[in-house]
Amino acid sequence: MIKNNFPLVSVIITTRNEESVIEKLLQSVCAQTYPSVEVVLVDNNSTDRTCAIANLYVDKLIMQGPERSAQRNRGVREAGGEYVLILDADMELSTNVVKEAVDCVIKEPSIKALIIPEQSFGLNFWARCKALERNCYIDDVSEVTGARFYERQTFLQVGGFDEAITGPEDWDLSQRVAQVTQIGSIRSLIHHNEGHINLLSQMQKKYYYAQNLRSYIRKNPKQFWRQANFLLRPAYFRHWRDLVRQPHLAIGMFFLRLCEAFAGAAGALRGYYMNNS
């Protein structure tokens, strides 16, 4: 769809009880310098004020579960844009993200998907440790970051997100898209709000997501083993100065990564035995 001589971009947002962060994201979408944007929000039965807040901003509000892969696919199916931008509720866009993304794919027609670098910030100690880790990847667009901006037709052509995968679904989709087209990147940032992280809750999250990790490994074994290198990633060496400048956060970061790895391994084992029992 063309609106005001600009291709329409559909911003797809998935939510479940996100009242504390959703308005900041929606305000950042409304502040984009690109003039042709619609907002499609897909909510998984929130019990807080998420939908009430969203109704003030969005073009389409859809109810869909059970997980974000299914939510995202529904949002793209309902979208009217030529391009789609897939976002989580705890993100905020810098003002030129959509404009730079559209400019890139128009200038380079062979590019049908884009990785957008993410810069994190956090409020408590563990959240700042997670932010330090994620910020090491800001210039590492090949190993640990999945595409977020897609030509809608290409997204649908490859089948969208695999609804059997929750957690690494971004990586999986990017791998399939890379088989049919070129994936590029832009410089404008997505700001990722890590908020307050509880160590136990973070481990429980990794445990939960890892239970269907087997599906991802079967489809993307080589990529998985590169991504599974959680302690000696090249990004950490490239950003060693950032780690040295904040030694207490660096130590916390590696401890958090170890805890997440332990929880993920336990979840993967449980998923394996559940599927084979």
Structural account:
By secondary structure, this protein is α/β, with parallel strands linked by helices. It has one domain (2-196): Spore Coat Polysaccharide Biosynthesis Protein SpsA, Chain A. Helices cover 47% and strands 19% of the residues. The chain is built from 13 helices and twelve strands. The chain has a seven-stranded mixed β-sheet, with helices on both faces. A three-stranded mixed β-sheet has the order 7-12-9. Strand 4, helix 2 and strand 5 form a beta-alpha-beta unit. Helix 5 (125-136) packs across helix 13. It is globular. The chain starts with a strand and ends with a helix.
Overview features:
277 residues, alpha/beta, Spore Coat Polysaccharide Biosynthesis Protein SpsA, Chain A, 7-stranded mixed sheet, 3-stranded mixed sheet, 12 strands, 47% helix, globular
Please give the alpha-carbon distance between the first and last residues.
49 Å
- Indicate the CATH class: Alpha Beta
Please tell me the overall pLDDT: 88
Major β-sheet strand ordering: 5-4-3-6-10-8-11
Sum up the overall morphology in one term: globular
Question: DSSP helix count?
Answer: 13
Number of β-strand runs:
12
Whole-number total of structural domains: 1
Order of helices and strands: EEEHEHEHEEHEEHEHHEEHHHHHH
